[in-house]
Amino acid sequence: MIVGYSRSEDEKEKILEYGCSKFIDSLDDLNSGDTLVVVSLFCVANKTKKLNEFLKSIFSKNIGIVCIDGSISVVGDGIKAVHSFIDAIEDFRKNALKKLTNDGLKRRRERGLSTGRPSVLNKQQVEKIIADCNSMEFSIREIAEKHGISRAVIYRVQSGKYNPSPIVREADDLVAIGGLKVQSIIKEIKSDEISKYSFFKNRS
């Protein structure tokens, strides 16, 4: 069944002009075999991740989609092919990021740089904390408040287990991948190497 979905009267009028007269109130009302008619992809998602999840969901249920603005039209036999294509792109994206991450970590190890979580304190700050502790003038709580850190960090500094970061910390080089914050490795790889991956070409 061909059904329309709109979020405003303007969108509804455009869908009616397209030739679709049956509407659904919610995208959850779609059934297997339906073809969804919308004005644009923005009608079903406002973020790339959500759009990808929505398309994979409807294609897995053999539901087609037609956008009046011409951005996409997938119906009939094309549903399975596009579903497979989206899965392939998602796998490629994950594999590309994994390779770039591993290459970047390898480069950092070769240069003797840390590949773990960046330290909060640099060497100079650690030396000041040690000096405060040795002075016996302040309590652990006072030292922690003075330097804006937790008492746990103070204890690690005292025990010699704290590994300070370089004085210049690349804090802006943090990116989110898979929900975890890791040091950005993209800058560690020459642009000509990144350009091998078409996924990154489209985002440059």
CATH topology of the largest domain: Rossmann fold
Share of residues in strands: 5-15%
Give the class from helix and strand content and strand pairing.
Answer: alpha/beta
CATH class of the largest domain: Alpha Beta
- What is the level-2 CATH architecture name of the largest domain? 3-Layer(aba) Sandwich
| Uncertain segments | 167-204
Mean model confidence by pLDDT = 75
Helix content class: 40-55%
Number of E strands: 6
The strand line-up of the biggest sheet is 1-2-3-4
Taken in chain order, the helices and strands follow as EHEHEEHHHHEEHH
Q: Choose one word for the global shape.
A: elongated
**Total number of helices:** 8
Task: Give the arrangement of secondary structure elements.
Elements: E1 2-4, H1 9-18, E2 35-38, H2 48-60, E3 64-67, E4 73-74, H3 78-110, H4 123-135, H5 140-147, H6 151-159, E5 174-177, E6 180-183, H7 191-194, H8 198-201
Parallel strand pairs: 1-2, 2-3
Antiparallel strand pairs: 3-4, 5-6
Please characterize this protein's 3D structure.
The chain has a four-stranded mixed beta sheet with strand order 1-2-3-4. Strands 5-6 form a two-stranded antiparallel ribbon. The chain is built from eight helices and six strands. It has helices spanning 9-18, 48-60, 78-110, 123-135, 140-147, 151-159, 191-194, 198-201, and strands spanning 2-4, 35-38, 64-67, 73-74, 174-177, 180-183. The protein is an alpha/beta fold and 204 residues long. Mean pLDDT is 75; it is low at 167-204.
